[in-house]
Amino acid sequence: MRLGVDVGGTFTDLLLHDERTQRTFQAKTPSTPQDQSIGVAAGVKLICEKAGITPSDISLILHGTTVATNAVLEGKGARVGLLVTEGFEYTLHLAKSWTPGPLFGWIVMDKPDPLASLADTRGIPERMNARGEVVRPLDIEAATALIDDLCGSGIEALTISLMHSYANPEHERILGRIVAERHPHIPVSLSSDILPEFREYDRAITTVMNDYVRPIMKRYLSRIEDRLKDEGVTARLHIVRSDGGLMSAAAASERPVHTVLSGPAGGVTSTVMIARRSGFPRLLAFDMGGTSTDVSVIIDGEPTISRSTEVGYFPAKVPTLDVRSVGAGGGSIAEVSELTKSLRVGPRSAGARPGPVSYGRGGTEPAVSDANVVLGYLPPVLLGGDMALDVEGARAAVKRIGDVIGLSPEDAAKGIIDIANEVMLGALRVITVQRGLDPRDFGIVAFGGAGPLHANALAELLGCYPVVVPPSPGVLSALGFLEAEFKNEFVQTFIRTTRGLDPREVWSRFETLDGKARAWLDEQEVAPADRGISYSLDLRYEQQGFEVTIPLPDALVKRAGALDEILDTFHATHERLYGVRFHVPVELVALRVVATGATPSVEEALPSAGSKDVSAALMEVRPSYFDGAFVDTPNYDRSKLAVGARVEGPAIIRQYDTTTVLLPRHYAEVDAQGNLLIWPVSRGN
């Protein structure tokens, strides 16, 4: 029994998979933002009741969490002390000397305070150069005094980030030992451990962020393990990384910066699996929840991996799945601007408490979900009848908006939906059009509690078909956690021109990284048959500021051959990505080794190949708002749609974890994997 748990802004989603029977069970329970572990424990209890098992029957829990992200975004992290090389105390303040925004120097930037204040920063007398050679010896006596002063000031965690420690970490390690001996209660992170790469600000801010969220993550994981133990759960707990891999709870406690995009990773992982199984290798992942919408692009069945991300204003240089988020979800609040009298939606959200007005939990401001209720897209009850909606309350709240701008409740609700769709459309354009990709070459996978409500409208705007609604879209991220693999990356900065470079210098360093990767796999108790190790080089043209990661064929690594083949691949890749190939020397920047540990795939029971007659799935006919008027619209029970069944739009297709809106002039078919495929009628079928 494996359990995936995805904590969202409104609901906590759970998916339980029984490997013996290949059955899955799902549950949704309200999230508890004040302490996410409360909602998780309640969800575990609920899903065990549904599956008819005891909590002790669960063997593994895979958990995606937003604890680290929320701590940074809300400014509620720990008080972090910072040790830097003397003279570099302003590293976090200077950052990259770059002002965001389209107007750059012509705008006023409200720059946030660094995650470690200048008052909690100390300059250590020492210096290494870029080749790891000691320029100024470490003054241990002065360093000890500075450490005692800082650690006695009330800091909760300590970051050590010295100049060029990626090339030689000796001084950082000495300082770490001093802290461990004299102040063992203070957790310490070394930048040479967290991010052994060049670029001083990126390394410093990433390591500081790790310490900023570290005490909070420790407390959270301790609470959740205690609550699960109280419920009788004895399973191991693993946390999902930002790159879609897995790490143990103990590792997540020490390196929580690797979980800053933990939540959205599961949905992207599932979209990759759908791309590989469905025969649609180019897909857009569209995850619309209660608070935000996350989008990503899948090309040739593979996700896009980024070497850095941003959490609010702060960069985090950790491997992540390339996900873009916007503040538009089912709980996004609609309001009229006092200044312009225009309607706007989000990013403010009703969250889990009080939630949209229709949830009946005390919400008073209309949200996107309320607009869907008014238009008849959402039925009066959700979650298989477990959650009744306040239809009249939602209509009254939307009517107040309409009265202000002179629209009927229905037209006001349609305006709310259209604006929310435009916000989400902007995110989809960023990952396609702005990268030179034509969205019409992609399908779109709709998931999250609200994704299938809006996906057909977005596909119509972008021209991307089919819309793929998987069998369990509301808990798809939790399913992605079950299909994730163990993953960790090991890197060494090694800046050298490739002109005259002895390949043995490269391969000898790969041997060291390979040893670290195998040791990590041992720590994670990954079976030898499930292990995988891949190699890559970061290369760039000399004088360039950014590099391109080039995978290395296993055969080349094994024979430790010349680098000519890799240089040819770099030239071709650079030309494909940027449209140009330069005839200048190539520079080596870093070596990377990625260790993976495979986990059993989730083989869900396929839908029956019964009758294609959809009349047996008809639940009721209710009025829904299409093309400016209410239309009697059939509502179907998705669980009764067999493989090959075809539903003509307009229609509403209902299931436990979500509702799918099928627009006029479209139809939906059930494919062999149980996905709903939505196409325009103009396709010729």
UniProtKB/TrEMBL annotation:
What domain of life?
Bacteria
For this UniProt entry, the molecular function terms from Gene Ontology, in alphabetical order, are: isomerase activity; N-methylhydantoinase (ATP-hydrolyzing) activity
- Keywords associated with the record: Hydrolase, Isomerase
Q: Entry's PANTHER family?
A: 5-OXOPROLINASE RELATED, HYPOTHETICAL 5-OXOPROLINASE (EUROFUNG)-RELATED
Q: Where is the Acetophenone carboxylase-like C-terminal domain?
A: 508-668
Question: Which residue range or ranges hold the Hydantoinase A/oxoprolinase domain?
Answer: 203-489
InterPro entries per record: ACX-like_C (IPR049517), ATPase_NBD (IPR043129), Hydant_A_N (IPR008040), Hydantoinase_A (IPR002821), Oxoprolinase-like (IPR045079)
Q: Does the keyword Isomerase apply?
A: yes
E.C. designation(s) = 3.5.2.14
Q: Species name for this entry?
A: Kaistia geumhonensis
Q: Where is the Hydantoinase/oxoprolinase N-terminal domain?
A: 2-181
Q: What is this protein called?
A: N-methylhydantoinase A
**Oxidoreductase as a keyword?**
no
Matching entries from Pfam families are given as: Hydant_A_C, Hydant_A_N, Hydantoinase_A
Please tell me which top-level EC class this enzyme sits in: hydrolase
